[in-house]
Amino acid sequence: MARIKSVAIIGAGASGAITASALAAEKSFDRIRVFERRETAGGTWIYDADPGPPFQLHPGKIPPEVDPPISIPRTLPVATDPVTRERFDRTPIYEDLTTNVPDIAMSYSDLPFAYGPFVPHWVPKQYIEEYFSKHEVDRYLVLNTTVEDVSRRDPDAESGWSLTLRRLNPVTRRDEWWAEDFDALVIANGHYSVPYIPQVPGLQESPHRIMHSKQFRSAGDFTNKKVLIIGNSSSGQDLTTSLLHSAALPIYQSRRSRGRWDGDTPPPGVVWKPIITRYLPSGDIIFSDGSMLSSSDIDTVIYCTGYKPSFPFWNTARNGGHPLYDYAQDRLLGTYLHTFFQRFADLAIVGLPRVLTFRSMEYQAIAVARLWAGRNAVGLPSTEEQARWEANRVELTRQERRKFHDIPWDNGETMEYLRGLFELAGLPRLEGQGRCPPVLDERTRWAIANLKKYPEPEGEEDGICSLSADGNSVMIHCAEDEMTI
């Protein structure tokens, strides 16, 4: 691969911020650009008080159907009428959302959060903005600009990318289109934009108000309303807990299986139900155990069923016919360490694995920057070995019935994953070029294992712990004692 001189980053959220910093630290690239479709950095942590008009629900449909590419003008540059189609650019942040990873583990290694351990949503948003400025990479930001197409610069070549870009001119109210070329590309666009709702017979004909958690903003909007929550992962737990203070009780919660925070019985004010098998035109809701909620039992159904990654800019036809994502398998195709691409040495993705959020992105970004600067300590394995890694992971996650990009902490998999990126990156040069991948020290590992946003039944006998910082020391407060590390 020829020397990389220019790099584009799609997205100015947490993964875009750390990637820009890591690339800049190498002092090896002549041009770095961070394209962000919103008006500021912050990514999914930007709070939109107005979630926008209710969007059309598409039960069972995937992003290529719901968020397809838009038509690209034949000639560039050009100005056109503005795009009015739904682009899912508003965020899913609700009013009382807090983080669920301890601050000591979630923040980047060189800048702590203002406080912790679990902070309100505006702290990560401000943190990301500050991080761009702290590392003087805010000058790379190109805001209010959407990447609409990513294609090989030359379809017959094996390097280089052409990006088609669109920006609304606020004065003329016209979309301005242009193209820019780069030697390498990092995809850092996040994966909390396009909501997913499973297909259930009768759902679209139901007289109930049915919505996705992406449009939820405040429990106060549901005062005295009878609510059914679908799902018991992070957002399902958050919304159920929040609604207990305002909605009519009980809150019904439909669960496919026992969640990480679920005990043997539901908390006061909550009634558990199994999955829904059918919505009836009368408004009755039928569950898999044969039980029913009548139309008078429920006003609103809120689906907390997550999101699917969307890459409408990826031009499969012009990129060798290689799709980026397999929605049937719910995973990226042809990757290594959830970061590198076997077919494209000048393409990387940062931020997709479900792991330690900001901190894990730091390891990814540094490994990418070191590799593209030609300063990595260990080379990538052969494409055959990378393909073997991918095949082995497909089989492992199939056997364990979990998602390909989910990396758990408790079984040691997170440490193994981060160690691979750590060893690939190596140390900065003696002269100072590059970032050092951070250590995951004892204090941080303890926080990950012990500090929980919600009590988890398996650890109840050990009590619930919290953490506070004072200078270089950390005070740990547990049920029966406290300690300083």
Describe it for me?
By secondary structure, the chain is α/β, with parallel strands linked by helices. The chain is 20% helix and 22% strand.
**Assigned CATH architecture of the largest domain:** 3-Layer(bba) Sandwich
Please name the CATH topology of the largest domain: FAD/NAD(P)-binding domain
Low-confidence stretches: 459-464, 466-485
Q: Regarding CATH, which class of the largest domain?
A: Alpha Beta
What is the approximate shape?
globular
Protein name: FAD/NAD(P)-binding domain-containing protein
Organism: Aspergillus heteromorphus CBS 117.55
Pfam families: FMO-like, NAD_binding_8
Keywords: FAD, Flavoprotein, Oxidoreductase
Give the helix/strand layout:
Blueprint: E1 6-10, H1 14-26, E2 31-35, H2 63-66, E3 78-80, H3 103-106, H4 122-134, E4 141-142, E5 146-152, E6 161-169, E7 174-182, E8 184-187, E9 194-195, E10 209-212, E11 226-230, H5 234-243, E12 248-254, E13 270-273, E14 276-279, E15 285-287, E16 292-293, E17 300-303, E18 307-308, E19 325-326, E20 331-332, E21 335-336, E22 340-341, E23 347-349, H6 357-372, H7 383-399, H8 413-425, H9 442-450, E24 466-470, E25 473-477, E26 482-484
Parallel strand pairs: 1-2, 1-8, 2-4, 8-23, 10-17, 11-12, 11-17, 12-13
Antiparallel strand pairs: 3-7, 5-6, 6-7, 9-18, 14-15, 15-16, 19-20, 21-22, 24-25, 25-26
Helix pairs in contact: 1-4, 1-6, 6-8
